[in-house]
Each structure stands twice: as structure tokens, then as C-alpha cells.
Amino acid sequence: MAAQPGLLGLPSRGQEERVTSADQGEALLRDLGNAAQTLALYPMDHPRARVALDRIEQSLAAALGGRAELAILFLDNRVVIDGTPLPGGENVARGLARALRARGKERVVVRRGATGIEAQEFIAAISSQQMPESWNGTEHIRLESLRAGVLAADPSSYGKAYGDGDEGFLSAEVGALQSLWQGVAVDGQLQVSLLKDVVHALSMTVTENFGAIIPLAPLKSHDEYTFTHILNVGILAMGLAEGLGLPSRTISDVGVAALLHDVGKSQVPLEILNKPGKLTDGEFTIVKRHPVDGARLLLRTPGAPELAVSVAYEHHVRYDGGGYPALPPGWKTSLASGITQIVDFYDALRTHRPYRRGMPRQRIVSIMREESGRHFNAELLKVFFETVIPREGSEVSELA
Q1: Rounded distance between C-alpha atoms, residue 350 and residue 108, angstroms
Q2: Which residue of 110, 191, 223, 334 has the fewest C-beta atoms within 10 A of its own C-beta?
Q3: Can you list the pairs that 10-15 forms with residues at least 24 positions away whose Cβ atoms lie under 8 Å?
Q4: pTM for the whole structure
Q5: 156-198 residue pLDDT tens
Q6: In terms of CATH architecture, what is 157-399?
Q7: SS3 call for 162
Q8: All structural domains of the chain with their residue ranges
């Protein structure tokens, strides 16, 4: 099925703008890498070192432009600049990547206000064997690892499961989502660049290892269920968007929105969310507020994508107009909301919980087929069954 990015309610950045941004980011990356390699060989006052450091100030200004920040992610052998993979990036700044990896870091965030002096301090520090482990950068040039804002130290863990057997889940991404949720729900701040990095890692998973990362084993705590379920929804949503033939940029937009679809549940008491039994009418009324609460949270959050607001608000609205919240007659939900609704429903039924077992896939598919055209968009559901379900790993029942 052909789909237009406009159906998703978000204007996409122009190709020319993306190319310019990537080129400027690549230039900064190359100059940082050259400086790191040079300082590994020469002292700070050597002429070659001074030339390498002086080039960085010009690159900083060009790369940032009018943006608040620029994020560079070193992920295995890939380099991602503001969510856009850089072809051959691992060869552009090999020295910088090596220096960061040795210190358990894989993300550099350059913020508005960064100066050439800061860049020199940054390069000198990461090139030094005496850099303290607690050093995380300068005021405007920060080092991060991908786990919970100060995220996971081992880049090899990003995009992979940890734990024994089927009880493992994507540890780095879970930590990142916990940080993202806390920022939105408590501080009203969304770490947009971090969210893009998580989505990029998940998009790699969708392409390379789709079936292996969906956790099916019993989850021991509310936090494990909440954030692992959100990751599953993000992965499955991007898988369905890919199956629909949507362009890569739109697939990423869908992934971002899917990861934020349940952010309103941060306002629901844990004793209700994790109750081992049927909810009372009053408790269910509280739970049903989470789409509205989520949309309001995101509307108040600087940097939150418009599409994420729509998906948070609409993901429990049925294709036939039922569900919640009640919408005016004729309201058209977004394509991304329809995608998220399908994968959210599927993963909620398939996942083991502390108080119940997940359903076998065959039973879930049967239930969803019965609701085709009513609860779910029939065309989207058909593509889900044809392109996503076959890519999954073992059945829930096989792990019971």
C-alpha cells in the first residue's frame, strides 16, 4: 500500500537541508577525529596540534548553525549524526571513536555556545591517558553513554539483549526510555536527540535482527513490563511501517511516536497499572485518562513531535470510532495511530505478566482477525499479518 508522509501529519525536512546538515556534521566529526589523532602523537604546543585545534572552532559554528545542539552517536561501526546515519562514518573519525570507546562512551552532544577553547579542552582530555573516569565533557560539549541519560557504558550492548536466555531485554534502550519518560513527566523536557538515537538503534534491529529481540519471558516488575512493552511497540510499529512501504524518514517518525504512545501512564498510580486482577470501574476510569494525559504532557514539552501527540491521544480509538477517548463524529485518526494501535494490542496480549501468561500467537491472530474492520483498519492488519508476524521468533506458548 502506498502511503504519503502527509498522512502522518508531519512535514518532513527537505532533502537539501538534510544533506547540508550531514555534510557540516561530517566536517566537524572529521576535524575532531584529526585533532584526537594529532594530539595522540604531538604535544599541545606543537604546530601540527595547533593547526588541528584551530580548525575545530570553524567547524563548530558551521555544524551547529541555528540549532540548539548536535548529537553524534558512535554505534558499533556506525556513526549517526542527529539521527541520520553517516555513510562510511567509521572511517571519518576512527581515532575519536577509539578514544571514546576506551572510556565507555559512545555519544557526543555539542550544544549552542560551544567555543573553540572548549573543543580544545575536550579533545585534549579524551586524548589523555590521565582523563578521570568521572569527566563527562565541558559545559557545551558533553560525553554520554547510552543508558538513562548517562546511558549504558558498553556500546556493544546497544541494540542487543542482556540477561539469560529469553529473560533478556534491550537494557540500554530501556534505560534510555526511563530517562526520557522522567524528563517528560517530571521536568517537562524531552531529550529529542536521545530519542532519535534510540529510534535509530531500533531501526537497525528491525532490519537486522527483528525476531530475536522481542522478549517473551515473564517480566518481574512493572518497570520491566512498561518499558520493554514500549520498546516492543516501537520495533513492531517500525516493522509494520516498513511493510507498508513507507520511506525511511517516515518510518523513524512512526518509531518516535510509538515510543511515546503510553507516556500518559506515567500519571497512573503503579498499584493500578500493575494490579494482579480485574480493575474496578473507578480504576479503569483513571487508566482511560492516559491518552489525554499523554497528549497534554507532550503538548507542554518543548521538542515533542506533533505526530507523537496525535498517537498518544488516538492509540486507543478504534477504527470504527469506538474506544477512548470519545472523539467528535468524522474524526480521522492518523495512519501512525492505526499502526500503533495494532502493534500495541498484539504485544499486550503476547507478553507474559507477573499475574497472567501471554497468549499463543495463533490465538491472538484469531482475536484480531475477528476485529478486522471494526477495532482495526483491515488493510493495515492484513499487512501486519503478512509482513511482521512471519518475522518474529518463537511462540509465547513455546516458552511457557
Answers
A1: 37
A2: 223
A3: 10/253, 10/305, 10/306, 10/307, 12/249, 12/250, 12/253, 13/249
A4: 0.62
A5: 333 333 333 333 335 566 667 777 776 776 677 777 777 877 7
A6: Orthogonal Bundle (1.10)
A7: strand
A8: 5-144, 157-399
